[in-house]
Specification:
- The structure is a single chain.
- The model has no long low-confidence stretch (mean pLDDT 91).
- It contains one helix and five strands; from the N terminus they run βαββββ.
- It is mainly beta.
- It has one helix at residues 29-33, and strands at residues 15-24, 42-49, 54-60, 75-83, 90-96.
């Protein structure tokens, strides 16, 4: 039911498949600071976990010089991306092909 408050933590395998994606050529400032732009795009996608849950995340490990080869159904595994240094260092969820 919508807006339910009865939730519990469930450990996930970290494995899934690419359910949908978009290639981003003009991203937010945060991604531009990481070096992504029109000449170096990145992929954001929806991952269907083995457990049946869908999650939005950055997708890594793909050859951006061949975007036509990126396919729905590609197997993925959890991959954490770190950005920054020292106290400013942050870890972000991603999935690797």
């Amino acid at each position: 039911k919508c807006h339910g408050e009865e939730m519990e933590w469930v450990e996930a395998s970290g494995k899934g498949t690419l359910a949908g994606f978009t290639i981003i050529y003009s991203g937010p400032t945060f991604m531009v600071e990481q070096g992504f732009d029109k000449k170096n795009p990145y992929v954001s996608g929806i991952v269907e976990l083995e457990e049946g849950t869908f999650i939005s995340a950055r997708i890594t490990g793909l050859d951006m010089s061949k975007p036509a080869e990126i396919k729905v159904g590609t197997p993925l595994k959890v991959d954490f991306v770190e950005f920054g240094e020292g106290d400013a260092k942050k870890t972000y969820l991603a999935f690797k092909a």
